[in-house]
Amino acid sequence: MNPSTTQIVYKNKILILGFGCIGQAVLPLLFQSFKLDPSQIVILSKHNIGADVAKNYGVQFKELAVTENNYLKLLPSILGPGDFLLNLSVGVSSIDLIKYCQTNKILYLDAGAECWEERYRNDNSKLPSNYALRDATLQLKQKGPTAVLRHGANPGLVSHFLKQALWNVAKDNNWKGELPRDAVEWAQLAHDLNIKTIHISEHDTQISAQAKKEDEFINTWSVDALIFEALRPAELGWGSHERHLPHDANHHGFGSNCGIYLSQPGAETRVRTWTPASGAFNGFLITHNESLSIADYLTLKQDGKVMYRPTVHYAYHPCPDAVLSLKELVKRKYIPQKDKRIMLNEIVDGTDELGVLLMGNKKGAYWYGSHLSIHEAKKLANHNSATSLQVAAGVLAGMIWAIKNPERGIIESEDMDHEYILSLALPYLGKVGGYYTDWNPLQDKKDSKEKHIDHSDPWQFINIRVSEPE
């Protein structure tokens, strides 16, 4: 039950904001890794879901929604300088919480970018993109208490998988340089290895003993968060090698210009990808922060002009019931189902295979990541599925890094020491390794005369996207 050998002494308070699937998954890991008294942890949640879990650990649980109108009065009553705000909420502004923590010398970590729910409850079309949220947050960068942005599994651990994968491929190509130390050196390595496209490639095969019902949305992690992401326009980091801008592509017109977004939601955008256990499959291109942060991190410029950048995006195949739920959601014209269920104890089998797929190197595409079964996850930590434990491992590792590096200001996953982070997370990730493949998205289209194909370069996005609109 306890992969940790030595507990870390931490004497300050931890406020867990939001206690859904991931909050409940993280709590056992905190007590495994830190020497804590239950009185040091306070949980705020707008629902009473998980209250029994908190009670089992002797942790204070308050059923209370954090809103734009009350957060400035609420947070000072719980947190002081040196304390930690772990933001695992949905519908609470990450930017406003970060500003508060920076001003009040409080450590911070979140697993995703969020806005105030009440501002957009009746009009999701006005929700800012991940690109816009990231740009606005990075403008706050200054010296101060550490705030780790978007550090679960993905975004989060996958950025550390990426660095390890690049280094593995470099060694396999007899690369003679030293381990890169900063963004420019990592980008130069990716360029030298001819990495054109990077997928955050995930296939969840976990199944439940309880069948999905009509008008029910099922998932292995937050239903609300998946719906929120899937209904937003698909976003991706846009590579310098790309020759075919999608017909429905849009540029943001501000910031680093590292990404584009499509005029259709992720729930209706499919891409071809690959993982070792599942082989080739089609996944959803759902907007995620790491698609932009990785693309930006691996950008090389000369005299202000982009000389190299890979295309980066998420390629996600949720669990079978979640796929059915998404299809039903689209048929309902995006009106969410009445009932929602997060699978946990009723999961009887399956794995979550999560990693990065690097494409373009002469040795073939290379996948590096975690293959974690539900059976392994249950042995490693209570209140976890394979999916939630991968996320919780990223959250835990990011928290430990922040506590040991308390004055680093606002930090993205790519700015952190990947070897240290992976050493903390690996005990919870099942089988972790790298695999080469001869797969490419044109393998079943060698003789095809389809309009939207570029036979000269398999790694063009036009080949990876399942269908290109007219």
TrEMBL record:
Residues 14-145 form the Saccharopine dehydrogenase NADP binding domain. Residues 152-431 form the Saccharopine dehydrogenase-like C-terminal domain. Coiled coil: none annotated. Signal peptide: none annotated. The keyword Transmembrane applies. Keywords: Membrane, Transmembrane, Transmembrane helix. The keyword Ribosomal protein does not apply. The chain crosses the membrane at residues 12-31. InterPro entries: Homospermid_syn-like_C, Sacchrp_dh-like_C, Sacchrp_dh_NADP-bd. This is Homospermidine synthase. It comes from Legionella shakespearei DSM 23087. The gene is hss.
